[in-house]
């Protein structure tokens, strides 16, 4: 037990170092920091146009008021911020590491290979506007949907958000790992990342088949839909349990797949 | 003239070389179209009206498909190359040789767009004719309108070229510009009607957009084909397109003149 505790502390410390170095390099290239925020603001405006149109239509959408929709889109914006700040840049670099053989460098390090290659780069600039904007939207949506602010609601909302991050990690890492076989994955990356955008609108607008596929097979709807659905009492008991179990199931699957894929690594050049 | 035909051919070859890339870009349109399809289906079912914000269901779906494809077609990208030329001093290569930078850029851009225009037009032609054959459209997509559309789209592409060409002069004043270009692209995709039809945004926003050239890039050509604009409206729209092209042409001349005075040819 103490061994696990020691290991966790060690990895937490290393993650803190990743964060520190990312911040240092951001400060060195300040213009990139500003541009990162600027571009994300542009994306937020695009997401807001959807909300604006929903308000212009002014009607309930499948029982959701425009303010309910704001709650969903706010959560989606927060998750976009977390995904692009903590994970995205690591994931797109992975095929590059495999192609050039630079993965060798990391293999020799006395630390989990999956940990260092998938979590090393952190870019705070993209998170700042998304998290500020998203939290404001969630607050407005929460308030105008007349949802009580109590411990159970806050824990449920934040809990499903954190579980969403774990699911995000799993389902967007899998396509990148195909690079162990195919080397280049650009097309696939674009395609799998556009799956993320299905959360642009509440999952209830899709037909039953898509909802099932997006919940159980490729669980994209678990990323940002379960937090607001929990608040709006839109989750059945089965869905609540699945929302908690699925992130761990997929995380274990990714771990198994990682170990399997690594055996196909042949290095390059040299 | 021959050197510019060469630049045109280079652009054309470039587009043909990276054809898979463009096809993938077109395929990636499917998801936003799907999301909007489900959004509008739900809105129309929930509301129970035949019209929402001035559009019936078929019209909005046709709009979504056309807008997604058109905004990929009109997209530029040479502004990044221009700022690289300025930053690395490559621009001086053009200054000492008997070749006009503007003529070079526009010929290579048009060369790159030519095969893309053909592909996108073909796709749209197939989609629109099969839609009007299989589902009853409130507004007829007539052959005459389709032909007019095919004439208007190249003008839109040209208009977007001039917007980007003006924007590209920013690199004379700023060392790093990618964030501004990228954000500008995102905002212009909204302002040109690439995501939702502009008339859905309400009167106030449209009053602002009326003063800007963006609506003539995507929104106007689609209104030509979906029958929302009467013929005299189309004619005055085309006139506005040419007016904007002329204005932006003059502006780009001015900006390039001012920019060249600051150009230092670093590295080169």
TrEMBL record, chain A:
Organism domain of life: Bacteria
Residue stretches spanning the membrane: 34-55, 67-89, 122-142, 154-174, 209-228, 240-258
UniProt keyword list: Membrane, Transmembrane, Transmembrane helix
Pfam hit, one: ABC2_membrane_6
InterPro entries from the UniProt entry: ABC-2_transporter-like
Entry-linked PANTHER family: INTEGRAL MEMBRANE TRANSPORT PROTEIN, SLR0610 PROTEIN-RELATED
Official protein name in the record: ABC transporter permease
TrEMBL record, chain B:
Top-rank lineage group of the source organism: Bacteria
Keywords: Membrane, Transmembrane, Transmembrane helix
A Pfam family hit: ABC2_membrane_6
Stretches that traverse the bilayer: 21-40, 60-82, 117-135, 147-174, 180-201, 238-256
Full protein name: ABC transporter permease
């Amino acid at each position: 037990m103490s061994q696990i505790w020691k290991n966790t502390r060690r990895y937490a410390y290393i993650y803190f170092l990743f964060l520190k170095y990312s911040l240092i390099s951001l400060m060195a290239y300040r213009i990139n920091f500003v541009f990162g925020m600027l571009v994300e603001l542009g994306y937020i405006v695009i997401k807001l146009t959807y909300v604006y149109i929903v308000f212009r239509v002014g009607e309930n959408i499948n029982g959701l008021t425009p303010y309910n929709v704001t709650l969903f889109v706010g959560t989606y914006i927060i998750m976009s911020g977390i995904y692009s700040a903590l994970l995205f840049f690591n994931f797109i670099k992975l095929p590059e590491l495999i192609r050039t053989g630079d993965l060798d460098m990391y293999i020799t390090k006395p630390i989990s290979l999956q940990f260092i290659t998938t979590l090393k780069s952190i870019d705070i600039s993209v998170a700042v506007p998304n998290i500020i904007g998203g939290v404001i939207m969630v607050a407005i949506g929460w308030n105008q949907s007349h949802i009580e602010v109590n411990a159970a609601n806050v824990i449920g909302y934040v809990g499903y958000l954190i579980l969403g991050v774990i699911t995000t990690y799993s389902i967007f890492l899998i396509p990148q790992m195909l690079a162990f076989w195919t080397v280049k994955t650009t097309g696939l990356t674009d395609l799998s990342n556009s799956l993320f955008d299905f959360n642009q609108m509440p999952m209830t607008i899709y037909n039953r088949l898509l909802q099932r596929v997006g919940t159980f097979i490729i669980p994209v709807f678990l990323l940002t839909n379960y937090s607001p659905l929990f608040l709006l009492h839109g989750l059945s008991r089965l869905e609540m349990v699945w929302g908690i179990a699925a992130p761990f199931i997929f995380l274990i699957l990714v771990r198994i797949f990682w170990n399997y894929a690594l055996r196909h690594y042949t290095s390059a050049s040299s | 003239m021959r050197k510019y035909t060469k630049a045109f051919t280079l652009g054309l070859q470039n587009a043909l070389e990276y054809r898979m890339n463009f096809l993938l870009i077109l395929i990636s349109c499917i998801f936003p179209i799907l999301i909007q399809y489900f959004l509008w289906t739900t809105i129309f079912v929930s509301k129970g009206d035949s019209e929402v914000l001035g559009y019936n269901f078929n019209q909005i779906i046709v709009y979504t498909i056309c807008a997604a494809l058109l905004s990929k077609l009109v997209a530029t990208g040479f502004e990044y190359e221009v700022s690289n030329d300025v930053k690395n001093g490559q621009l001086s290569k053009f200054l000492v040789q008997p070749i006009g930078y503007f003529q070079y850029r526009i010929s290579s851009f048009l060369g790159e767009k030519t095969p893309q225009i053909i592909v996108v037009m073909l796709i749209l032609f197939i989609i629109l004719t099969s839609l009007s054959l299989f589902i009853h459209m409130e507004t007829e997509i007539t052959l005459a309108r389709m032909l007019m559309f095919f004439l208007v789209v190249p003008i839109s592409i040209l208009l977007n070229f001039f917007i980007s060409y003006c924007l590209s002069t920013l690199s004379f004043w700023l060392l790093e510009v990618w964030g501004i270009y990228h954000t500008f692209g995102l905002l212009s995709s909204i302002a040109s009607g690439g995501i939702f039809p502009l008339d859905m945004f309400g009167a106030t926003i449209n009053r602002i957009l009326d003063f800007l050239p963006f609506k003539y890039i995507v929104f106007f050509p689609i209104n030509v084909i979906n029958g929302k604009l009467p013929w005299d409206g189309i004619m005055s729209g085309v006139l506005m397109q040419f007016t904007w092209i002329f204005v932006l042409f003059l502006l780009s001349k001015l900006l390039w003149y001012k920019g060249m005075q600051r150009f230092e040819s670093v590295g080169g």
